[in-house]
Amino acid sequence: METRNLGASGLKISAIAYGNWLTHGSQVEEDAALACVRQALEEGVTTFDTADVYANTRAETVLGKALKDERRESLEIFTKVYFPTGPGGHNDHGLSRKHIMESIDGSLRRLGTDHVDLYQAHRYDHETPLEETMEAFADVVHAGKAHYIGVSEWRADEIRAAHELARELRVPFVSNQPQYNMLWRVIEAEVVPTCEELGIGQVVWSPIAQGALTGKYRPGEEHPAGSRATDEKGGADMIARWLQDDVLERVQRLRPVADEAGLSLAQLAVAWTLQNPNVSAAIIGASRPEQVTENVKAAGVRLEPELMRRIDEVLGDTVERDPGKTRSPATRDFG
Asked: How remote is the C-alpha of 121 from its chain's centroid?
């Protein structure tokens, strides 16, 4: 397994990280989830990403159980805070000091550890002063409950402001976790240049566009039974944007490119994200162990410039590049 530094920090993480957003505690039974984590460990994955909101805290519990007998120093465990948890009371979400300080303790308890390696702000909170949020994160780090801090889906100006405060507070702000794949490149124009300047690395989610880049969805055909597109627990909603015939037809046209590289379409998609020098890791999810085995083969792959050019040519104007698509909810009213 290839390892990379997380941003400009000294923390090394596996280039393929394992995430349990749409699986553990909701779509996948616990035995299958545990098998996927075991397979990830077998394949050399050391970096595991979760969040308190995933399956309303159950995903953290499952991950903690799966990693219970592993040497803690050999793992990098990431989690996040922002979205509603518990009964959804008025202080059960956001980035207030109260919510952050209570949430880190809950996450550590569920994960079965006394610290996380990276604690991330899951979105930007427009209703809490940034100074309050960053001071709370600094206190979490100084208390030894997290080694580093990061954010997820923050805009370039928000990242820059937070980084300035982090330096004043002497806390290592090292990462951003955005959606990024061949079809969704909104971070390239503004977020990536800013993060390169500041020494912040990307830990990207959805490198295969919720499965749309695997090629298993074909234009004009019914979606495969048991696939994410047929899942009624949330998966179908997440992948819907990619299931237009024009997009699916272009994905099929990538097969010769993948064949030439000696990769499956899924491996090509993951390898593509890792070509960006600002990407420290690509997060994969899985409902079956064999999916883990397939996707980790993308680590260490070098795609030639001509192949990268052909990918751009095939996908054409189906690629979303608008930096304005990176945004957090305007308020914390989650209905």
From this structure: 12
DSSP-H helix ranges across 170-209: 191-198
Quote the CA–CA distance of 26 and 23 in Å, as a whole number: 6
The tally of domains found in the chain comes to 1
54 is catalytic: yes
Instruction: Let me know: does 8 contact 199? Beta carbons within 8 Å.
Output: yes
What tens digit of pLDDT does each residue of 16-38 get? 999 987 655 555 577 888 889 99
Residue 158 lies in a domain: yes
Q: Which helix (H) or strand (E) element contains residue 36?
A: helix 30-42
- Considering the candidates 18, 54, 148, 217, report the single residue annotated as catalytic: 54
Is residue 230 one of the residues assigned to a domain?
no
Residue 154 resides in a domain? yes
Note the pLDDT tens digit of each residue in 187-218: 999 999 999 999 999 999 999 998 889 887 77
CATH number at residue 286: 3.20.20.100
Give pLDDT, residue 88. Answer: 79
> What is the pLDDT confidence band of residue 225, given thresholds at 50, 70 and 90?
low
Burial (Cβ within 10 Å: 0-12, 13-18, ≥19) of residue 71: exposed
Q: How many CB atoms lie within 10 A of CB 10?
A: 10
